[in-house]
């Protein structure tokens, strides 16, 4: 990445294997790759660093779950002259455009586009979650000892955040190297202030390697330590351009920064793409309702920013979605001042594909900024499930689950011992079947208990959030006085309780992870190999043609596609095992002829 500026398988099986190998793996792709602050500086770009990976990550990444550029179109013959097709842009119309462009080439009919649209983005792996948070510094001299970065890296992995914009990074090149060394699932593009890189300011984009095409990122620093423009390939040939900002707190520098961005985007010499979304810490509000107490200051709604918004044709996404809601993303320690200075602006075209807006206390910084996030959905992508289920390690210490699981195991053991002693064995009644039934019962028990525990935690958190929402609603209409002072104190109390709950969840995860690392680090085991390998996103199979369908019909649901692939695999396993009568006789005659000739040759010798 660089900154912007012996024996062979049967023919049918070989064709299938070639079709299932992503095109990106068969050809070489060229990718192009604290305290608050001071004044806006002259341009300088902090170079990103490519480092080797020699140390186990502090938070082991999960399995690959992301998307990449889809594979090329392949047709595979199957028995019966039917075939299974992998639908790709080559077969259904390719697109080479930016997500936010107003003029977009019309595509050919796509089978994925014809399916019913899902209202919930939770089931759509095609959704890309983008977030922003002011982390108020590294939290430690080195990244290895930073609890903030440990929690941040874990949240990006667990909550499937594709792109994270962070402010007040206080990082230099050596810190970026450390992030890449310890957290292999992250790619950081950072820009720091020239005069005080580790003590103030700084903005960065953090890419989740498992969910994004991070190798295609092109970046340009517009204002060092303040503004980064990054562009990457999303799905197929679509481009997504993100403008990450951290505005100064001083009015002159803040207002001047928007002018710099405006002029830089219009400069033909810079040849920068127009962003599809702009997010970060703006350090001002556009409406009095976004401050507590509700008021406008000379810092707010600068004319230069309004001019930039008109150029980009963007709007405040959260306010457009929730026009009458009250929310604050920043608060001081005693809650005497709060505001919604962290925002996401989007073009109209991108706005139509958004959902699941969130403003939440992450637990990374206390009494400061909240995390904001939004999910952008590509409706033309296939429906992809949540992946393989695994039992939560928390169940191991749950007494109710352990007692019930022990009871099930003892019952199965008695049954198996009885079968062995009696010698009675049938196809339906044998130790293997009883063992399989036990595993199924344990899995069902684990799922039920996990839902119960998750429901308890969710109910407790929902109660806290509901109480917080009620206090916010009261504060909106309150005048100064003892009643408002009491409500502010209640708000601080409930927000600290939410932050403590988030921190407690992080601590439990890290305790288990540290024990696992202590036991398995630098050993010949699956975990160690997983921690030390590079993270690459998976290619997405867009659709599969149903065998024998005429006109062609396509499956776009991952479960349906898996079933089609399974059926095809089963069919080629049984192909030609029982040849027709004439073929069988011919094969027997040929075999006997070879045997007779071999015996005759031996006799002559």
From TrEMBL:
Residues 1-124 are annotated as: Disordered. It comes from the Eukaryota. Transmembrane segments: none annotated. GO terms for molecular function: catalytic activity. It holds the Pfam family Exo_endo_phos. This is DNase I-like protein. Residues 43-53, 64-81 have a biased composition (Polar residues). Residues 150-350 form the Endonuclease/exonuclease/phosphatase domain.
